[in-house]
Amino acid sequence: MKISNEMSRKQFAAAVVSQLEKHGISCVLVGGACVSIYTGEKLEQFLAQYRNLRK
C-alpha cells in the first residue's frame, strides 16, 4: 500500500505497520492515534507512535 495524503489515519497506520513488517520489524500503533481511531476521530490526536514488539 502506498502512503499518501488522502489516507485516513487508520489506513496510514496500517500502511506503516505493513511496510515495517516487510523489513522484519513487528510493531503496533499505541497512544493518542489509537484513541482517535477507536473514537471515530471524536478525540483527535496527531501523534502516531509505534511500539516495537521485539524483546
Question: Can you offer a commentary on this structure?
Answer:
By secondary structure, this protein is an alpha+beta fold. The chain has one domain (9-52). 38% of the residues lie in helices and 15% in strands. The chain has 2 helices and 2 strands. The protein has helices at 9-22, 32-38; strands at 27-30, 49-52. The protein has a two-stranded antiparallel ribbon. The model has no long low-confidence stretch (mean pLDDT 85).
Write the layout of secondary structure elements.
Elements: H1 9-22, E1 27-30, H2 32-38, E2 49-52
Antiparallel strand pairs: 1-2
Q: What's the SSE pattern?
A: HEHE
For the secondary structure, the number of strands is: 2
User: What is the approximate shape?
Assistant: flat
Counting DSSP H or I runs of 4 or more residues, the number of helices is 2
Structural class: alpha+beta
Low-confidence stretches: none
How far apart lie the N and C ends?
A: 27 Å
- Structural domain count: 1
| Strand portion | 5-15%
Determine the mean pLDDT.
Answer: 85
Radius of gyration over all CA atoms, rounded: 11 Å
Please describe the biggest sheet, giving its number of strands, its sense, and whether it closes into a barrel. 2 strands, antiparallel
Helix residue percentage: 25-40%
Q: Order of strands side by side in the largest beta sheet?
A: 1-2
